[in-house]
Design goal:
Blueprint lengths: L3 E6 L4 H5 L12 H14 L6 E4 L3 H14 L3 E3 L16 H7 L1 H9 L12 H17 L5 E6 L3 H10 L16 E5 L15
Parallel strand pairs: 1-4, 2-3, 2-4
Antiparallel strand pairs: 1-5
């Protein structure tokens, strides 16, 4: 298994900047997202990872391009690292959901593990899918540093699976936190042993 996993959040899209729920919608980077991808590439270039993987959505693929160039790596696709499927809520503002479906909104906020958006995915199912993808990825590499580029809030799901870090509010589109976080693997996470914590 690699020594470290670098989790890179894809740059923001117009949906993220507007506070809309992107989910699995294929939305390209906004101008600020392109700048964020270039900044991430510059930060990673001095000590590039040994391998680079990318989710299949447009924003993650666009984010991978400058990082691939700067690090001299080909970004390999990981289809199972698709974002959380938010069903019929995708494209909506959080306030719209709060007004149109107040009861379901409260239930999701109180316990996202037990409630799925209409025609969407349970958080538990998403975590199992992401964990399976990470296990496959990490078995391919005996050591070193491996990077994954994923959309938000999937970056927080990956970080929770690997290190137990709180997911926080999955609808918070604030991009103020670090775009790339390097997590040690050997001491903190073993495949099929996710931390038993709540959001």
């Amino acid at each position: 298994m690699p020594d470290h996993l670098i989790v890179i959040r894809s740059g923001p899209t117009e949906y993220d900047l507007q506070g809309r729920i992107r989910g699995t919608l294929d939305v390209p980077l906004a101008a600020t997202g392109i700048a964020a991808a270039e900044a991430a590439a510059a930060a990673l270039a001095p000590q590039p990872p040994d391998a680079l993987y990318v989710a299949a959505d447009a924003a993650a693929r666009e984010t991978s391009r400058p990082i691939s160039r700067a690090c001299g790596l080909k970004a390999r696709p990981l289809p199972l690292l698709a974002n959380l499927d938010q069903g019929l809520w995708q494209g909506m503002l959080v306030d719209e959901i709060r007004c149109k479906q107040p009861r379901l909104y409260r239930q999701w906020q109180d316990n996202p593990w037990a409630v799925a958006p209409p025609e969407g995915e349970l958080l538990e199912d998403a975590c199992l899918r992401v964990e399976e993808s990470l296990e496959v990825l990490l078995r391919r590499h005996a050591r070193g540093r491996v990077a994954v580029i994923v959309p938000q809030p999937l970056d927080r799901v990956v970080r929770w699976i690997v290190s137990g870090e709180s997911m926080g509010d999955l609808w918070d589109c604030d991009q103020a936190g670090p775009a790339a976080v390097e997590l040690p693997l050997a001491a903190q996470w073993q495949p099929s042993r996710r931390p038993s914590v709540r959001v």
